[in-house]
Design brief:
Length: 103
C-alpha cells in the first residue's frame, strides 16, 4: 500500500474531501452500497409481499450494512487524509471572530 493521501482536510467544518481518483472511488463505492441496499430493501419490503416482522428485519439489515459501510468509509478516509481531522473555520482560522465576520 502506498503512502499517498487520497483525501484532504475540509476548509470549513469537520472531515475530509477526496482529492485523488482512489478517494473518489471509495466515495462512489460507498454511495453504490447505500443505494443498492436501499433499492433491495424497498423492492423486497413492498406492501403485500412481506409480513410486518420481515419488513422490520429487512430495514434492520439495511441499518447494519449501511452502518458498517459508513464506519469503513470513515476509517479509510481518516487514515488516508493529509492532516488531522478537526473542526475548521476556514483558511484564516488565526483571526478573531470579529475579524472573520467583519463585526
Amino acid at each position: 500500500m502506498s503512502n499517498q493521501y487520497w483525501f484532504k482536510p475540509k476548509v470549513f467544518g469537520y472531515g475530509a474531501s477526496p482529492t485523488t481518483w482512489e478517494g473518489w472511488a471509495v466515495v462512489v463505492a460507498y454511495c453504490a452500497v447505500v443505494a443498492l441496499m436501499t433499492l433491495m430493501v424497498v423492492i423486497a419490503a413492498e406492501p403485500g409481499k412481506a409480513s410486518v416482522g420481515v419488513f422490520w428485519m429487512l430495514w434492520a439489515v439495511w441499518l447494519v450494512v449501511v452502518g458498517v459501510a459508513t464506519a469503513i468509509l470513515a476509517v479509510v478516509s481518516k487514515r488516508r487524509t493529509d492532516g488531522e481531522w478537526r473542526w475548521r473555520w476556514g483558511r484564516s482560522a488565526n483571526r478573531s471572530f470579529r475579524e472573520r465576520w467583519k463585526i
